[in-house]
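User: For my dataset I need records formatted as: sequence, then structure tokens, nothing else. Please produce one.
Assistant:
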Amino acid sequence: MTIDLFAISVDAREPLRLARFWAGLLGREVVDDPGEGVALRPDGDAVLRIRFLPADTPKVGQNRIHFDLTSASSQGQRETVARAIELGGRHADVGQRGDEGHVVLADGEGNEFCVTEAGNNFLAGCGFVGAVNCDGSQAVGYFWHEALGWPLVWDQDEETAIQSPRGGSKITWSGPPLLPRHGRDRIHLDLAPPAGGDREAEIDRLLALGATRVGVGRHTADDVVLADPDGNEFCVLTPR
């Protein structure tokens, strides 16, 4: 395996404004990103890079990927929710009953995220961004396990999760039924071989695992756009 998860990328009408919301919420610094976007600087080796890239299309429907933020205490959960609202977020209704324990919010461009309850053992030790929560099948969880070479840390009742050997945020797939698609995914994964790596060989490996070609140039002319077995788009960037 010679490809890395470079970033979780978020399409945004106003990338800098959205980055500032998330920087304020997560306590991270906004930095320039290659191309036209901006990013949040990781504050540790196991922390995911999050970047915000310009897109003209408005958000339609519920995203198939969202962040799960963790809470050390009930008071901490309330403080995270209050901070998100103060920064310009809002409560969101995705069909939750209201007794789940987590709080569903949306950022300034309507991207959903959850603030989990204290004592969530599944996300214990995963950091503030406990999970990148994806809508997807068991098969797609297996695909990403092989694609990134990350250990499979959960596989039960068609729900799967992987986690970097370095620790940090989990990437999870919630199993069926899957959400309907609403055009291009506004939140997606960006992969990149390390410096000196063979991108074409890695693309061939991903295709052999079940990915399909979608096109090129999602954000830059050099992006190669693939889709995983569930049809979720992701980009393979030049070696980084």
